[in-house]
Amino acid sequence: MDQTVWNKALEIIKNDVSDLSFSTWFKNLGFLDIKDHIIRLVVPHILYKNHIESNYKTIILDTCNSLIDTPLNDIQFILKDSLKDLDNTKEIEQLENEADNINYNYESNLIKKYTFDNFVVGESNTFAQAAALAVAENPGHIYNPLFIYGNSGLGKTHLMHAIGNYIKEVHNKKVLYVTCDQFMEDFTGLSRKSSKDNNIDYITFFKNKYRNIDVLILDDIQFLASAQKTQEEFFHTFNNLHNNNKQIIISSDRSPEDLKLLEERLKTRFYWGLEVNIDPPDLNLKVNIIKKKIKGERIAKEIPDNVINYMANNCGNDVRQLEGSLNRLIAYSTIMGFNEINLDVAKEALKDQFKKSYVATDQNNIRKIQKIVSDFYKISFEDIKSKKKSNNIAIPRQVAMYLCRKLTDESFPRIGIEFGGKNHTTVMHSCTKIEHELKNNKELRDSINIIEKQLQ
Ligand code: ADP
Ligand code: MG
Question: pLDDT category, 361, cuts 50, 70, 90?
Fold first, then answer.
């Protein structure tokens, strides 16, 4: 069996699993070789190994065996970065469910429009999306709790609703989504009145709402930090659900370690599961999100690429703001009676939103520099953003970072993000190194001159 047969196997598997599962789990799977009837596949992260092993092993083996003569009997997963093999499995004791079965008027609070289908995946959120889908496909078993963190507007709430909607639809389980505020409000008894109408005492009402469910989604847990008593109640709720293998999904604007006022014993619980973070989107992801929104909302007017790039370049890192700009642009062009949306219309419509207006949309921006530098050094566009350290790639990358700093107004952290999520110190180091080299290295000087000419 070789790569061609593996590609054939993938084609067959593609028809047998959902598009979403295929693009999440199989697209990033590499074929290595076969040894002693064992196929070796390369995965980017332990999460893929765990999930594929428990969900897709049979389908992979059966499909491969239908294509080859000597049957395979197992799969071995190799971690791409030869990460240490972490043992994520946890034995969870099954305890009796204490919740009384009083009929609670159950509502999930899920927003239907937030789904996996309309969540656009890019470098900054791939891992979070994969983890979310793993939990959605196998709630309560592998990653419990799932802790998603990242700055505001990066898609945490969207992803959590997507998990909830998926579990409700596919597994038909009881899901409850609450914001931290809602949880605190329920706890402090503000909902007491409505529960009294049903003649249920408040404690029972609370317990039934929060314990008689299969999945609890708690959004923005950072707000829990200020409320000691509520933390304690959440701790009990958490334990009760967790002990019963009920899935818990939590979001926060910072990592558990940074939740300073949160009780230590609660934080310890979070480490039982999986923490994933969402980074700010790069330009490419922003462009794709705008395109997806345009498609999804069936916006009648054509929006040209240079307008999309203009928005993506200027809106900052908040996806919420990006959506706001798009809505504003549509509203503006409709109210003002423009039949066509072009760059001038967009600039006028969004001038108040984008504090800093760029001279031109696609001139000297980071992507253009990356593209021209990689073409010049004959390496791929992906390589320049990769982590590869060999000189033939590292030097062009440093040159590109240097030029980004020199020719755009972008900050070191921003440039780092656009280069595959590098730390700002890496960018600073690269710039200093190139500046230093330029003094003595004529060949480098000439190369950079040529590149700069191409960028003009
Ligand atoms: P957070 O909870 O992290 O503050 P949200 O989930 O509320 O962010 O996201 C803000 C808005 O941006 C939502 O309307 C959401 O649909 C959208 N959004 C964020 N990330 C994505 C993405 N990757 N694909 C599509 N839409 C996204
Ligand atoms: Mg949110």
Answer: very low
Q: Is the CB of 323 under 6 A from ligand 1?
A: yes
What ligand has the least distance to the C-alpha of 152?
1
Q: What is the pTM (predicted TM-score) of this model?
A: 0.64
Q: How far is CA 265 from CA 90, 115, 261, in A?
A: 18, 33, 12
161 lines ligand 1 (CB under 6 A): no
For ligand 1, atom 6: residue with the closest CA: 155
| Residue labelled with tokens 């099954």 | 94
Distance separating the N- and C-terminal Cα atoms of the chain:
50
* Nearest residue (CA) to ligand 1, atom 19: 155
Q: Which of 123, 125, 152, 158 to mutate to test the pocket of ligand 1 (most atoms within 8 A of CB)?
A: 158
Report whether residue 348 contacts ligand 1, using a CB cutoff of 6 Å: no
Which atom number of ligand 1 is nearest to the Cα of residue 251?
A: 2
Task: Please choose, from the candidates 281, 269, 18, 20, the residue with its C-alpha nearest in 3D space to the C-alpha of residue 130.
Answer: 20
CA dihedral 180, 186, 191, 192 (to 10 degrees): -170
> 187: closest CA among 224, 242, 216?
224
pLDDT tens digits, one per residue of 27-73: 878 888 888 889 988 887 777 787 888 889 999 999 989 988 888 98
Instruction: Compute the distance from residue 239 Cα to the ligand 1 centre, in Å.
Output: 29
All residues at 6 or more sequence positions from 231 whose CB lies less than 8 Å from its CB, including other chains: 224, 225, 262, 263, 266
372 neighbors 455 (Cβ within 8 angstroms): yes
